[in-house]
Amino acid sequence: MASIILPTFEWTRSCEQLARQLESEDELLVVCDHEDDPVASTELPENADLLVAGEPEGCSGKANAVALALEHASQDRIVLTDDDVERDDDWLATIKRLGEEHGTVTAIPLFLSEEYPFKLLEPLCIVVASFVVDRTNWVTWGGGVTFDRREIDLEGYVADLRRTVSDDALLAEYTDEVVASRELVNEVRVPGGPRVTYERITRFVTIFYRFAPRRTLAILGLFLAVAAAGIVAPLLVAFSVTYIARDQYRSLGVDRRTWAFAVPSLLLAPLFALAGIARPTFVWGGRRYLWHDTFDVTVLEEGSTATDED
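^ thats the sequence. predicted structure below, dont judge the formating
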């Protein structure tokens, strides 16, 4: 049994996949921002409750929604997820089982798109994101993570959610060990136009930088070093990074040929990293945020056309 927390504006195909997997003792907490959001008029499953979080103040809309749901959750086993995750039929049973076996368990995301320029950056997102989630305790992924509320300072976590942006990077700060499972490798189809890609990638970088600045700078330094080496030995570097990308795709079971864009990803990565570190604001879910420091967030505006719902 578990409390499953699902922030969403509308009832999506991913939500329906999740609803079909609920067991009788599970509770699904669907969280939206406003009473007039489309999901508020949807007929939810019998063991689901709708929560209205309202406008965030000093935090992101996602963090605000998760904080409210955690205050209402009745089960010890918590599952956080998103409304755009592709789920197998046993996704929920698997993440709950792994959580009981290992404690805090995170799925591994695969961000995919059929649009450019994001498609050029797929190798970057798949290789770097899977490495960060799979090989370190640096960050969990809010699209699929479970933990036992008795094993963390839940009151402190909820309080910090209401003064930061990233629910998943913050969760990693409250857990001693995170297990990333290859049983939970989930595709997330995202829009990939120029503006939305810029917002998404710089947000990712900003999250990493706010919670672990030294490691973020170390990864940036590594990308710059490899790019510099490409000036001296372009064929060797191009072959090596492409091989690494293709190997990681195979390891994660990704049946796409975008690994061939490993070299463009390598060249674009430092530019996005520097933009994410230096850029003062970003757009997420229709709101623009000014993120001064880890726990210092200003919500600037709503209604930008460059929305990013992930």
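The radius of gyration is 19 Å.
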